[in-house]
C-alpha cells in the first residue's frame, strides 16, 4: 500500500474549473494504476477516471469535461475539472492499484468539491 493525499478541492460556481492533485508515496509510482472516484451525499462512491498502462478511461458523466494526468517524476496525479456542474459536488478520492492493475489497494482521505448553481 501507499499513502495518498488529495488537495485542491473547494467551492466553485457552475461552469467553473478546479484542479485536484493527489500526492503518492512509493518507489514504483509509475507502475501503479491510479484512479479518481467521488462520493456525493447519500450516494455510493462512483468511478470518475483511471490511468493505467492500458490508457486513460473516464466515466461517461465526466468525459469531455475532466482530464486526468500524472507526473511520475513528482509521484502526483491530477484531475482537471472544467465546465463543472452542481451534480459534480462530491468528495473526490484518489486511489492506487499497486499490485494488480485493476484492484485498488490504497485510498486517500478525499477532498471536497462543491459546485454552486
**Share of helix, binned:** under 10%
Percent strand: over 45%
Going by helix content, strand content and strand pairing, the class is mainly beta
- Flag low-confidence runs: none
Number of strands: 11
Largest sheet: 7 strands, mixed
Overall pLDDT confidence: 96
Number of helices: 0
Order of helices and strands: EEEEEEEEEEE
The quaternary state of the protein chains shown equals single chain
Terminal CA distance: 38 Å
From the spread of the alpha carbons, the general shape counts as globular
Please tell me how large the radius of gyration is. Answer: 13 Å
List keywords for this structure.
4-stranded antiparallel sheet; 7-stranded mixed sheet; 0% helix; single chain; mainly beta; 117 residues
Brief overview:
Helices cover 0% and strands 52% of the residues. It has strands at 4-7, 10-13, 18-24, 33-39, 46-52, 55-58, 66-71, 76-81, 90-97, 106-107, 111-116. Strands 2, 4, 5, 6, 9, 10 and 11 form a seven-stranded mixed beta sheet that branches.
What does this structure look like?
This protein is mainly beta. Helix content is 0%, strand content 52%. The chain contains no helices and 11 strands. It has strands spanning 4-7, 10-13, 18-24, 33-39, 46-52, 55-58, 66-71, 76-81, 90-97, 106-107, 111-116. The strands form 2 sheets. Strands 2, 4, 5, 6, 9, 10 and 11 form a 7-stranded mixed sheet that branches. Strand 7 (66-71) and strand 8 form a beta hairpin. It is globular. The termini are far apart.
Amino acid at each position: 500500500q501507499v499513502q495518498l493525499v488529495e488537495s485542491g478541492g473547494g467551492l466553485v460556481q457552475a461552469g467553473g474549473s478546479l484542479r485536484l492533485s493527489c500526492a503518492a508515496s512509493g518507489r514504483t509510482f509509475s507502475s501503479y494504476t491510479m484512479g479518481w472516484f467521488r462520493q456525493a451525499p447519500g450516494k455510493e462512491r462512483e468511478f470518475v477516471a483511471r490511468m493505467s498502462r492500458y490508457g486513460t478511461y473516464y466515466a461517461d458523466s465526466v468525459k469531455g469535461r475532466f482530464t486526468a494526468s500524472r507526473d511520475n517524476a513528482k509521484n502526483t496525479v491530477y484531475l482537471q475539472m472544467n465546465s463543472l456542474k452542481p451534480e459534480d459536488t462530491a468528495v473526490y478520492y484518489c486511489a492506487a492499484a499497486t499490485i494488480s492493475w485493476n484492484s485498488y489497494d490504497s485510498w486517500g482521505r478525499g477532498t471536497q468539491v462543491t459546485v454552486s448553481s
